[in-house]
Each structure stands twice: as structure tokens, then as C-alpha cells.
Amino acid sequence: MRMHKVMEAEKLYGAQNYNPLPVVLVKGEGVHVWDDNGKQYIDMMSAYSAVSYGHSNPKLVDALAKQAGTLAVVSRAFYSDKLAAFLEYACKLVGQDKALAMNSGAEAVETAVKAARKWAYTVKGVPSDQAEIIVCEGNFHGRTTTIVSFSSEEQYKAGFGPLTPGFKMIPYGDIDALEKAITPNTAAFLMEPIQGESGIHTPPEGYLKQCAEICKQNDVLLLCDEIQTGLGRTGKILACDHEGVKPDGLMLGKALGGGLLPVSLFLSKAEVMNVFTPGDHGSTFGGSPLAASVGLAALQLLVDESLDVHARDMGEYFMDQLRALNSPLITDIRGKGLFIGLEIDPKQASARDVSLQLLEDGLLTKDTHYTVIRLCPPLTITKAQIDEAINIIKHSLKKIEKTLAA
Ligand SMILES: *Cc1c(COP(=O)(O)O)cnc(C)c1O
């Protein structure tokens, strides 16, 4: 009853830009969340990796509370005693020279686009306003007008024109297409090491390494969007680390805010970041003492608790258990670490229907692109909790199979 009211009220006063599953969450702790009836769920969404370190992680809540009660926001009109330590730790962790703090992931991507364009004009020597950025089909980099301009998803763009020019689209995972698309005006190749929103798509082995080589040969920046894949999710600190690739620029977000507030970074080599001069770019909240303290605590937690290694081990275990289910509804199980996608046979059931059944049985997840179920729990998940999740998934799939057979 109460749940219904909240959903109605949100419909009445909120924009209808989402289509949430019918559950009202009121509490979270670790890998679990609870609804307003006290029902417990295992969270397999982790807010698209924003909650990679678990709901209300006590260490991160502590860092947040301490800093909130000391000094939270000063704007970048002044120095604070917290920003430098955060940037230094982040740069050293991922092997980049410099970092620029923003809030949302989309802002970090916008920062990368601006940096790449200005680098093209001031360092590479591309004629004014001619810089091109190559992107991939199926990409997801956020929702600003410039970013949706280079989406291959028609709905993301329809009705929001005029679109921003200067982007060129190539198929994901196709190295020849990249080579052919590069011109003397190419500033950068912007890509996700694993495409998340498009359905957890991993490119062919060696693709990233070849991209890095081709970019280097052609004086093109390789910009990797690791907003969702970064910070332990795929079993390494960065998804790029699986192929030993160090991009020229890197975007982090989501988990960087410790599941508590939006914190994002654009990191790059000095040659790129040095194109920015005072007044070129900024953000009122970006790099605030609060954001810096929580961001630093989140990175330290990742390192101190080796959550990347844990994610790798738990991911392997999870995938093995999923394969052992042998469900006729599942046509593919893919991913890396705890970044897992289940492809559901659309002739038998929609991914939305599967997610609704899982919801009823106590497991939260969501469909992406109609046929894929995301299984991306907090990286802190234990083996016993994975067993519990597997039992739920088994039960839900069996129920759907039975309904289909009837
Ligand atoms: C979520 C996401 C973004 C956008 O982040 P927001 O914080 O929602 O703006 C960009 N790139 C990737 C790969 C993402 O997964």
C-alpha cells in the first residue's frame, strides 16, 4: 500500500525519464538492500558500480561524516588541505601524471573531450575547429548533449538536436576500422575497455593493445572510459590492466564516490592535462574537501582490502556456478571479474521478465538492452553470498521454465 503511494507520487511529481522496477528501497548494508516491507534483497546492480564497495561501507561513511563535520565545500577559488592527497593517490594508483576532479561520469567524459580537442590544436597542430574524435558503436559515455551526439542509440539523440559535430563512429572491437578512420585531424579514440550499457561486451583478446599501438603510431590519444569498468570491477584495478595498456587519458567515476556521493576524475599524461589554463574548465563541487576525502578513502579501501583480486576470484566462482546451472533460458554468460552479463533467449523470456521474477525471489538486478541481465554485485560479496544468489537465480529460472512449459 505504502509502496504504491510512493510510486504514484514519483510519477506525479517526477519526470518520467526512468522505468524503475516496482520496489521501494529504504535501507542498505553491504551487498543487501531492504524494501519498505522489510524484505531483504541481494543487490546485483550496485548502482551500475557506484556501490562497488558495498552499501554504507562503515569506513567510507566515517570518512564522509568526519569531513562533512569539518569542511565540506569551499569551491576551487581556494586551496583545501584534502584535494592534493586525493589526486596524488589516484595518479599513482593508475599510473597517470595529473588528474582533474569533477562530479558525474559524464562531466569527466566532457573534460576528456575538451582536453583532447585543445591538445589537438595546441600540441598536435590540427587546424582550428577541425579536430575529430573516434568513438565506438554501442558506446555509453553519459547523457549530456555533446555525449549523446555520438551515441549509436537513436533514442538517446532523438529530439535533442542540433547535435555536436566532430565525432566519427566505428564498430567496437574492429581494429582495421580504427586504422581506416584515423586522419591527420584525429585527436583521440574514446572507448570503453568493456562495453557495459550495451550488454557487457568484451572485445577480442589483444584489441586494446592493438588500439594503443595504432594510436601511438598516429599521434592519436587513447582515451579509456573506465567509469564503470575501473576500480576493481573486472578483477584488476583497471580493465586496461588486463592487457597491460596505459591509455593517454582515463575517466573514473561511479565507485570513486564510495557509493556516497558523485566523484569523478579525468586523469592523463602531463602533455594533455597541461592544455588547461585557469578559466578553461571547472566545477563548483568538483574536488571539494568532502569529495576528495571520500574519493581517497574509497581508493585506499580498494587497495588495502585487495578488492580487485577478490573480485577476480569471486567472479570466476560466480561464472562457474552460473554455467553449472545449465539453464535453457541462458544463451550466453560473459564478462570479467564481477562484471557479468547473462544473455536471455528472447524467444523464451524477456530480460525484464527475468528481472521481475528475480525481484520477487529476493535478488535485485535490471535488464539492459532487452536481452541481458546484469550480475554486478558489490565487490565485497562473499562466496556464501554468491551461493545464496545462485540459489535464487536457479529458483527463478526454474519457475519461468515451468510457466513456459505449461
Ligand atoms: C555511467 C557511465 C557514464 C556516465 O556517468 P554518470 O555519472 O551517470 O554521468 C559514463 N561512462 C560509462 C562507461 C558509464 O558506465
Kindly list the characteristics that best describe this protein:
Aspartate Aminotransferase, domain 2; binds pyridoxal-5'-phosphate; 2 domains; 406 residues; four-stranded mixed beta sheet; single chain; globular; alpha/beta; Aspartate Aminotransferase, domain 1; seven-stranded mixed beta sheet
Task: Give a written overview of the molecule.
- With 406 residues, the chain is α/β, with parallel strands linked by helices.
- The chain has two domains: 3-57 and 306-405, Aspartate Aminotransferase, domain 1 (Alpha-Beta Complex); 71-304, 3-Layer(aba) Sandwich (Aspartate Aminotransferase, domain 2).
- It is 39% helix and 17% strand.
- The chain contains 14 helices and 15 strands.
- A seven-stranded mixed β-sheet has the order 4-10-9-8-7-5-6, with helices on both faces. A four-stranded mixed β-sheet has the order 1-2-3-13.
- α3 (58-68) packs antiparallel against α11 (289-304).
- The longest helix has 23 residues, at 383-405.
- The mean pLDDT is 97.
- Bound molecules: pyridoxal-5'-phosphate.
- Pyridoxal-5'-phosphate (PLP) is lined by residues 48, 104-106, 109, 140-142, 192, 196, 225, 227-228, 253.
- Pyridoxal-5'-phosphate binds at residues 48, 104-106, 109, 140-142, 192, 196, 225, 227-228, 253.
Low-pLDDT stretches are: none
Overall pLDDT score: 97
Computed structural class = alpha/beta
What is the CATH homology-level superfamily of the largest domain? Type I PLP-dependent aspartate aminotransferase-like (Major domain)
What distance separates the N and C termini?
A: 32 Å
Widest sheet: strand ordering: 4-10-9-8-7-5-6
> What's the total number of strands?
15
> Portion of residues in helices?
25-40%
Question: For this structure, what is the CATH class of the largest domain?
Answer: Alpha Beta
CATH topology of the largest domain: Aspartate Aminotransferase, domain 2
Rg on CA atoms, Å: 21 Å
Domain count, please report it. 2
| Tally of contiguous helical segments | 14
State the shape: globular
Strand content: 15-25%
What is the CATH-assigned architecture of the largest domain?
3-Layer(aba) Sandwich
